[in-house]
Fold this protein.
Amino acid sequence: MEYIENKTFAEIAVGDSAELVRVLQPKDIELFAVMSGDINPAHVDLEYAQSDIFHKVIAHGMWGGALISAVLGTQLPGPGTIYLHQSLDFIRPVGIGDKVIVKVTVSEKFPEKNQLILACECINQDGELIIKGEAKVIAPTEKVRRPRVIMPEVHLHETGAHYRKLLAATHDIAPIRVAVVHPCDDLSLSGALEAQRQGVIIPILIGPKAKIMSVAQTLDCNLSNIEIIDVAHSHAAAERAVVEVRKHHVDAIMKGKLHTDELMDAIVDSQKGLRTERRMSHIFALDVPTYHKPLFITDAAINIAPNLAIKADIVQNAINLLHALDTPKPKVAILSAVETVNVNIASTVDAAGLCKMADRKQITGGILDGPLAFDTAISKSAALTKELISDVAGDADILVAPDLEAGNMIAKQLIYLAGAESAGIVLGASVPIILTSRADGKLSRLASCVLAQLYVTHVRKTIV
């Protein structure tokens, strides 16, 4: 166990010194900005910083001051020190990758009040002075030796960062025409209008026109340039959306304020619906703060207890989506409770079957492995601990759940416990279905539209 120990006033002599060394990392700047609220673009905006006086992102001046405080509070004098005064002169900037040597040296002692004056300086890797100053403290008079506290690990995540990268990929492609079914609440309508504003979709609103206009009035939105197809209720809106697809008037369907079953009933109708030879399946696209890339989970909304044949379609749908998102060989983890085939756990047998189907080109375009437990699918350290040799383990793009219940719970746990942002799309019909949840915000709805736009554009290129 490591300990932290102070020096009492009696133990300290003039000339005593202590130091620490720190290399400035981008996360140091981000953490300091978050903690302090100082988001000066010189520190957090690369484009601005390059045109500023130093032509690079630099640390906050008080980041160096905080390092001085760290030496005073943990080394000299250490625990029990009371900070009274600090003066600092900032001489040179600190850039990312710079090494900072922080040193404090006792210059005066005042026994009557147990006070110390310490000279403080920060020097860079070239021996240049960055900060100089002076600190006045009350030194402890009693010895303190405590176990060093292990600080929590901090993960920095920009909400929706992965989604914004996807949105950037749509800037040079045309918007798609989308039938928005029954957009009769604020989120449904505002989500579609935001996607229009971003150049992702051209919305065709289908539902009771009076209700749609009432919502628009509440949102203070102008719908004069948007096509509205007036129908009596949500069920009629779902049926009309299917008709618009069959007439080739729209490229995708977006769920508004109606139940998923109501929308899907019209889509899966054997005579008038949008079935293809491929089984329809839902794919969650999650932006998970603790994962290094977008994570896709399927199927968590359509197929309740899929058999092997249905799972093959579920896997192929997800692979096809990743191709549209410019991932040519997505890594697909077939999930179960264990990593070995066990005849008593049906999902392990299905996983083995899916992997062999990929070997025989019955599933194409991805790298499959399974069965894999959730931890080994997303954690390289877990995979190493279990001595798994796998191209997928710890780096999965797609998680294929054993059934709808498992998939839904995995997705919802990541959303509500891990702070993931979610988007969702259904593939396997003749057009993609943008299937949002009632709890989804504007960002999630926009991201779902982006998935559909990229997929439709990819399919068009493939056909050509």
Q: What stands out?
A: The mean pLDDT is 94. The domain at 278-428 is CATH 3.40.718.10 (Isopropylmalate Dehydrogenase).
